[in-house]
Amino acid sequence: MSLMPFEPNWNDLPDKVKHKCIGKMDFPTRLMLRSTSRSDRRLVNIHQTNLKLVEIHEKDGFPIGSITVIPEKGKSIHVQCDDQDSNHHTMIPFVKFVMKTGKIEKLDVNVYKDGELKEELMKIALKFPKKPKEFNWNDLSEKLKARVINKMDFKTRLRFRKTARYERTLVDSQLIHFNYIQLTGNSQKINNYCTELSFQTTVTNQECIFKFRKTSEFIRKILPLLVYILEIGVIDMFLTHFTVEFIDILIEKITKLHGFPKLRIKTLDYLVSRKAMFWFLRNCDERYLECIETGVQNYRQFPIDRFLTFPIVYNARTLEIHDARRTTILIEVLEKWLEIDAKLGTTLILHAPGSLDEFLEKFENRIE
Fold first, then answer.
1. Where would I find the F-box domain in this sequence (predicted)?
2. 99 and 153 both lie in a single domain
């Protein structure tokens, strides 16, 4: 006795298998299937079909016409309606289906009379496009979040890091580049001298300026911002002149913070207290610092001996000292460089009155 082959019933198949079958059907077969039941219509309507051409024509002066559909694969379909009833029950639903599920390469429409067909086509033509998918920030990967943060300007970062503790950690993990940061005490505000903090980020090149007169203003408004900038910034130039008190307050604040990183400053131009001078030399990252510029006018006697004990000083590419008062500082620096065999290409710029006679006498055997 031979067994009859098993013939599966379409209605017994799971939707996943039905979808696979519908995906392999040509356009005419899909049309026939969607007319069998409401559930099959729902399944077919999910699938889109590539259509090379759709022509919709209406007879001039009559609410009747035809539609021709040429799919990318399979046979073409032509629906002709010769009366208003078939136009309403056959052509209009078919037009809706084609326009909803078809990816149409070319659409040719000729509709003359105001009526149901024209009304439906206008609805389709004027229908607003679907909103693009909105992504939830919390669902994005950390790598993608970091890329977005790196595109933000500085003010946006500051606002964004206030939204949640996790976002603050993420924002603070992304370094931000500054063209310069300046804290100077010779600015003006309404015809009076004041202190000014200004900085410019590399991302936007937009300058931010804050002016203040009182120490209380600095501690309340400027100090937290400056500490944060030094913590997360890669700074091409950090300049501070005539702000001895404020820099000492800044250093005291940073010293109390656990795990504060080395300062990523490339050019350090500073006139500060003796304590602050050495603090910066200890706390700047040698991998970044290239140029040091300072002056002697803040000191009775410039501490050149101790200044030159810091490797970050004699390893800098450029060292510039203003108002040196005496050329012997130049001799002391050069002797230190000879002692440690400084790298070729290192530049020393010294601004001092007087002649170089003593210098020439000291190094005459090294000068050709």
1. 13-53, 140-180
2. no
For residues 228 and 220, is the Cβ–Cβ distance under 8 A?
A: no
Q: What is the DSSP string of 248-261?
A: HHHHHHHHTSTTPP
Q: Are residues 111 and 205 in the same domain?
A: no
Burial class of 348 by CB neighbour count within 10 A (0 to 12, 13 to 18, 19+): middle
User: Are 211 and 306 members of one domain?
Assistant: yes
Which residues, in sequence order, are CB contacts of 349 under 8 Å at separation 6+?
A: 318, 319, 320, 321
Tell me the pTM: 0.61
Determine the Cα–Cα distance for residues 97 and 245; give it in Å rounded to an integer: 77
**Distance between CA atoms of 275 and 117, rounded to whole angstroms?**
86
Q: Which residues contact 236 (CB under 8 A, 6 or more apart)?
A: 177, 178, 179, 180, 202, 266, 267
CB 332 within 8 Å of CB 304? yes
β-strand pairing of 176-189 with 192-201:
antiparallel
DSSP string, 277-307: HHHHHHHB-TTT--EEEEESTT-SS--HHHH
Given 101, 126, 151, the domain boundary residue is 126
Q: Tell me the per-residue pLDDT of 293-320, one tens digit each, with 9 for 90 and over.
A: 998 877 777 788 888 889 999 889 999 9
pLDDT of residue 237: 98
The pairing of strands 65-71 and 77-80 is antiparallel
- Residue 237 three-state SS: strand
Could you tell me the two tokens for 252? 């005291």
Alpha-carbon distance of 324 to 351, in angstroms, equals: 6
If one counts the domains in the chain, the total is: 2
Both tokens of 18, joined, read: 């039905």
Residues of the chain above pLDDT 90, percent: 27
What token pair was written down for 102?
């078809």
Length of the chain equals: 368
pLDDT, tens digit, for every residue of 160-186?
888 888 888 889 999 999 999 999 987
Residue 167's contacts (CB-CB under 8 Å, 6 or more residues apart) are 160, 161
45-60 b/e (C-beta count within 10 Å ≥ 16 → b): eeeebebeebebebee
